Amino acid sequence: MSDKSFSPKILGFLCNWCCYAAADAAGVSRFQYPPNLRTVRVMCTGRVDPSFILKGFLEGADAIFTGG
Amino acid sequence: MGKTIKQREGAVMIVGGGIAGIQAALDMTELGYYVYLVEKAPAVGGVMAQLDKTFPTNDCSI
Amino acid sequence: MITNADFLALEGNPGNFTAKLNIRPRYIDADLCTACGLCTQYCPKHHVDPYNEGLSITRPIHIDYAQAVPATYYIDPSSCMYIQHETCQICVPVCQSHAIDFSQKPETRELTIGAVILSPGFGKIAPETLEKYNYGKHPDVVTAFEFERMTNASGPFLGEIKCFSDGRHPKSIAFIQCVGSRDLGCDNGYCSSVCCMYAIKEALVTKEHDPEVDITIYYMDIRTQGKDFDAARERAEAIGVKFIRAKVADVTPWENHLKLTYSTFDGQHKFDSHDMVVLSVGLESPKDAKGIAKATDIELNKYDFCQTETFSPLQTSQEGIIVAGAFQGPKDIPESGTQSSGAATLASIILKNQRGKGTESKEYPEEITVSDDEDVRIGVFVCHCGINVSSVVDCPEVAKDAGKMDNVTYYTESLYACSQDAQEQIKQTIKDQKLNRVVIAACSPRTHEPLFQETLKDAGLNRNLFEMVNIRDHCSWVHANEPEAATDKSKDLVRMGVSKAARIQPLPEQTVPVIPKALILGGGIAGMTVALSLADQGFESVLVEKSSSIGGNLQNLKNTLAGETVASFLKNLTMKVTKSPKIDVVTDAALTQSSGFIGNFNSIIESGKEKKKEQSVDHGVIVIATGGHEHRPDLYQLGKSKKVVTQKELETKLAGRAKNRAPNSIVMIQCAGSRGEDLNYCSKVCCNHAMKNILKIKEINPESQIIVLYRDIRTYGFAEDAYLDARKKGVVFIPYEVDRKPVVSTQGTKVQVDFFDSIMQEDVSMTPDLVTLSVGLVPDGTEELSKMLKLPVTSNGFFLEAHVKLRPVEAAVDGIYLCGLAHAPKPIEETIVQAQAAAAKAAIPLVKGFVTVDPIVSSVEQDDCIGCGLCTSLCPYGAIIMEKVGKKRKAKTISASCKACGICASHCPTFAISMGGFTNEQLISQIEAFGNKTVEEKVEA
After folding, report:
1. Taking the mean position of all CA atoms in its chain, how far away is CA C450?
2. ipTM (interface predicted TM)
């Protein structure tokens, strides 16, 4: 795999109150960012069980993002 | 809507169904009163319904 | 809701009015119309569309916009061929539901009501005023209202900005401010208070469409005085919007451009050409203002807006009649919304004895039981959001993709899923297709989840059998240039959502009682107004004041700008508060501890000067009115020279008896320490404060020479009259630039001011008798409180409201409300309105007597709990307790305290805790669905 073609699959856990809200705000402000992220809304990143992260990697994620 | 509506106690009339009228109507309803929202146009919403984005956050207005 | 109606007359007294209305016919039966739109397609006549500011053509039979409420079409009689000429009637047989009824007649109706709220909005500036800018003669001169529709994606040109003359895209656009406001030519001396904001907004939106376009805003003063408004102006400047301080004399055609002639403040005449000119037209009093005044006998001010007083800003001259919104004076959306809530408080006080007697509670159909062994039937609705989503994301493709998934029995698309007709369709589909789970791919659940959950409830489904996928804010808007990738992402997100939805379970609704008492922090004008407003509605409160007497900043003020005496008002208000049996005033007091949740707070208040005593209060809501104080910057020799004072000090001095209290020469410096120095914002009140003092000085000593050095004079609204008055009285106003601020120095007892006179274009040095600084306002105690109550503050230290426009007086935490200077700097009038609005919002849970708990909270499966106590120690809200069940210790959630963060669930070693709507099973399946895609792609690759 050459570096240029590498397009990572990122799984994100977003806190409803801050990071999810920020992602909404990014939309409202039309900030453009790479389309590699797939998100899961949680009410707080406290909800993220370590097993979720491992599961994400198992499912083929190249990176996991948690925002809260 | 029938022509004769029974008299209601604790009712308020709001003249104008723009953002101000709508907000007042919602609050009055939540506070336990009956509201007549009287609007001269065929639909409520007023000028705000014509706006796309709002200042300063450029949020969607509808 | 009574639409298409004119308000004709009002009789009676507060508590018992009779209003007469004339309801004009729609010629369409509202109960039968399905808003299908077929009639509009067949109607042969053209009708200029006022909703699009006359920029497009519709038909006499039409609906203004897709989301209109009520979603019923209507016939405009002015252009309908049948009504005008008794011909045509094509629409009648076309309508499948036989809703068209030309026999409808105007109808008079009488309403019996206890109170009236007037919110008729504003009117538009007459076209004659705009003629001097060639409006109406040259097609490329448009009003900002027209421009707004042009930039709108759902507008007549789908957001494409074109010159009307030849259809080219304008490369250079000029905005002319103050058209029809601050303009004595059309007798509108006031400032419309919104045009600077909308011009900047439209400039930003236009730049977003086309970053290359050149935008110039010609202005006298940029009045972005609202909370965080200056930041938007700076943003506009940063992306290249030009601001030129000049008056535009005229606009003339010049080849295929428009030539602007303008004079700058230093007296130069200049020319510039632009492709398009946008007139920032002001707001006028509503067209029927005089009619309303006649019908209700209320007084109007000299500009035909509703006359009100500073201390009772929403009270008209007639008891029982309340005003809100732009009819009270030109204002923006948040101010209007706040006034409306304030008006609700005043109306509620009048009607308090009849509360709850006239209303019926909404009834929902019985909930359909959805059991575990039943087949999962998911319906997927993909929303286009006009073109907000569909212009980037391939919506049909996304819907089709969802249709292939397991358990999805139905999928469709919708232009606006949130519109009333679409809601009805969703309800019908749920019934027809026997759906037991609903997935909506649209905008953010943070704004629209409650709406759709309500729809589910109406259709008899438990509201938690719902999952929302955000393909707008997180997709089409942020990947606007990558439609394919955005469509892929939407598909993935929908798949993940559907996968989760398959595993969601109905959750029961829970309610908890509310303690009917308020805790009010701060005994200034805001806090006192809240306390009295609640007392007048029948609710008790505890008013906590940190100093030894209530009254706050008002104790330092003498007069209002409009001339009312502060002291007598304050005395009266203080007396009412202290005498009220429903208000418990605690002075020298501070909140030391607070816990609980909406409806059930417990707070510890420490009071007393030397001997501290503590009291514990149980209450249902908290109102924060902790206020603010004058900021004293270490600038311009303040505190170093006796001849340098603040506006507040000057006001005190002017009210005294000293002989030289209004000296012969005074220099005032505006924005001292504000807007980018110590304080990064505009304090909104300083310009008005300066005008008030100036007029007082001129009253005492008409000979006094006053020079005001300013950046922008922000005497918005009717305060503009005072500014004009000051200029008429010979006060000299000189703008200064940020990079060329005035310098104040001392020489012995003398004080010297050096500044660049931007009008004469020369350096000036003078030694006035007095230098007065307009300093800003800073909030009090927001830092401590924000930590204690877990409330967010802005970067400037003010409390952050839940939503700037929709929830301007509510804090992010339920049951906590904001008003006064702790929220943002604002004048007395706005503080009172905001306090009344906060009282309305705070009264809502008190009136209801209970609050509904979102069922997404945690719950403990006690059979699996091993009683380790890890969750209890980790919960940041104290919402999990250990109880004894039989001989064992088991965890238990206090639902109303739970914020649904899920820390307990993710740490529980036996997975005994589950989160409503976010169970392990649901989230894992969502993650698995994320993985499916990767597998698929690998296969394809």
Report:
1. 19
2. 0.94
